[in-house]
């Protein structure tokens, strides 16, 4: 319900997922961990309870959930260490 928080999460979502240069696009799709993101990925404030979804779909049966979770955690850790102060 906080407009500033909604704005920030929307920007974060776009940074993480949109376009071939985005961190999750590179870490998940380009690397071959999964062929596509799940529907509704990113930040959604259109419902009573906002959501932030990180997920994949059409994963090959040989891919382990632990491998996907590790890529997600590693990507979040990498992004959290970026310095945007000089951007």
What would your notes on this structure say?
By secondary structure, this protein is of the alpha+beta class. The protein has one domain. The protein contains three helices and four strands; from the N terminus they run H-H-E-E-E-E-H. Strands 1-4 form a two-stranded antiparallel sheet. Strands 2-3 form a two-stranded antiparallel ribbon. Helix 2 packs antiparallel against helix 3. The longest helix is centred in the last third of the chain and has 16 residues. The chain is globular and about 40 Å long. The mean pLDDT is 91.
Offer a few descriptive terms:
alpha+beta; two-stranded antiparallel sheet; globular
Write the layout of secondary structure elements.
Blueprint: H1 3-17, H2 23-30, E1 36-37, E2 42-44, E3 51-53, E4 56-57, H3 65-80
Antiparallel strand pairs: 1-4, 2-3
The Rg value, from CA coordinates, equals 14 Å
How far apart the termini lie comes to 29 Å
How does the major sheet shape up? 2 strands, antiparallel
**Integer count of domains:** 1
Total helical elements: 3
**Structure class:** alpha+beta
What is the string of SSEs from the N terminus onward?
HHEEEEH
Unreliable segments of 5+ consecutive residues: none
Shape: globular
């Amino acid at each position: 319900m906080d407009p500033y928080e909604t704005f920030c999460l929307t920007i974060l979502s776009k940074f993480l997922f949109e376009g071939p240069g985005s961190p999750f696009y590179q870490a998940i799709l380009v690397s071959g961990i999964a062929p596509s993101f799940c529907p509704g990925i990113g930040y959604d404030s259109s419902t009573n309870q906002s959501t932030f979804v990180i997920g994949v779909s059409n994963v090959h049966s040989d891919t382990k959930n632990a491998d996907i979770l590790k890529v997600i955690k590693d990507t979040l850790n990498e992004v959290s260490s970026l310095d945007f102060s000089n951007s």
